[in-house]
Amino acid sequence: MKVIYSYFYRYIKIAIFILFQILFIQLFQLLKPWPIKFAFDYLIEKKSLPFSAVSYLSFDTQLFILCASFVLIYFLLGAFVLLNNISKIYFGNAILTDIRTDIYRKLQKIQISYFNRKSAGDIIYRTINDTQSIQVIATKIIFPFISSIILLFGIFVVIFQINHKLLFVFFFTTPILFLSISFLNKAIFKVSNKLREKESTLLSTVEYFLNNLSVVRIFNKEDSENKKFQISSSDVLNQNLKLNIFDTVHAWIVNVLIAVGTAAILWFGVKQVLSNNLTIGDLIIFISYLESLYGPINSITQSISLYYESMAGIKRVLSLLNENEIIVDGHENIKDNIINHIEFKNVYFSFDSKRWIIKGANFKIFRSDKVALIGKSGSGKTTIVSLMIRFIEPTMGEVLINSKNIKEFKLKSLRDNICLVGQRPVLFSGTILENINYSNLDISDYEINEVLKIVCLDDFVKNLPDGIHTYVGEKGTMLSEGQRQRISLARALLTNAEVFIFDEATSAIDNSTQKRIFENIMNRFQYKTIIYTTHRLENVSYSDYVLVIKEGMIFKTDKSDLKI
Ligand SMILES: Nc1ncnc2c1ncn2[C@@H]1O[C@H](COP(=O)(O)OP(=O)(O)OP(=O)(O)O)[C@@H](O)[C@H]1O
Ligand SMILES: [Mg+2]
Fold this sequence. Notes:
six-stranded mixed β-sheet, Rossmann fold, about 575 residues, binds magnesium ion, elongated, 3 domains, binds adenosine-5'-triphosphate, alpha/beta
């Protein structure tokens, strides 16, 4: 929780300003019925107002002053509420932006394996929705709670000053209102939480369908999917109906309770008025205050329920903020941007500390080596290359670059010099050009054409109506898998990296095109270090030597030793 308070503390001056506004707002709330009281108790009784500054003025002027002050109270109350709302929104948003930015920064540092374990939906929910809890705590819990307490306190003090005897009606009504409102609010919270759950189920039903569209159709599951949707949809409607009924019943019960309180005041009040112990004006103030009891009591009970709900969100935010699986940045740059060797020294790696994926890897790759990394599916090829760019860290042992632990280097310097093309091509919605020059915006048309030739996409792009400016669709879905892979390759080849790593980067491309791409790359980048993983044995021919992964162990082999 200290972490959360530290966010509040950054804006302490605004918080104090808001508290002052709240004091004024509640003062005006209390003043609301007073002009009417003075009208009844003095002017209607043909007496002058009990203020020496105005008591000598004419009757009309005094009445006018009373009417004007009535309007003025409402005007100032509104103005302060406006100022207060603006300040609260600013305060809440400032805190929300700060915490979201911190979480976003944190996400950039967390190990890639964390994201494999958590669903994207969960992380998005924590970053966007759960963080709102901190805003809710600031704007909808703390300040309304304080203002309600001040108002309740004010009401009791004023009533105590006027007439002790009627105070008991307030003492009697307040707890009953409090108990019944909090009971009803609890029920409403339950229903509205259920409604939110049902709505999210409905959303995920649609999301599931969209993600698995082709599988649903291939296996003729449209009918069962429709049924799921219908059930989800009617669940939402039912909960909505329930919530509406609860809301209306809530208002009904509260109104009746307030009427009972008012009736009690009328009963005792009228008697007191008749026995001259109370003025009509005072009675009006009592009735008006009794009606305004609902606001603060409701707000306090809501604040309490909201508090518990928000704490659940805050806990999820904190667990993300305190996530310690982070990659700590190093301090050094890679000298002259030259990588003379990458070395694995007794590296062990496990995702879950139960099963070793890599068991004691020892090998050294030198500058401008061409290395094929081969092994069965699931043998750990992607794991090895992820260790080279610090997507993940060795569980034991060291990865060395130029004989220094990889952890000493700045991540930026490391990733500027080692560029990985992953197994699954990642494209953004945008044009082909935007996808290619993401790595290097200053690239010339000539260089782009050159790289398109290397990845054998030049003819394809030329023949598109919009050429390089063709839109590729959401995640590049308007292109074939092989085309997407080649765009990913082109994006990497345009960087100035010293080492290129291709993790099955050409697996979806036909053999003859793949052969041309490999030959082009090896010719064009003969001085760069190239490490590539592959299932296809024939691809080892472009390498100088082969690293074979088998049961977590790595052996260096000559390519001629492999039966192709
Ligand atoms: N995030 C993860 N959490 C737990 N285990 C994982 C995770 N990612 C991979 N694995 C396991 O680690 C092993 C090695 O995976 P890796 O992706 O390195 O294999 P690969 O050799 O690249 O396979 P492929 O040729 O199919 O791409 C696999 O057995 C896999 O089950
Ligand atoms: Mg792999």
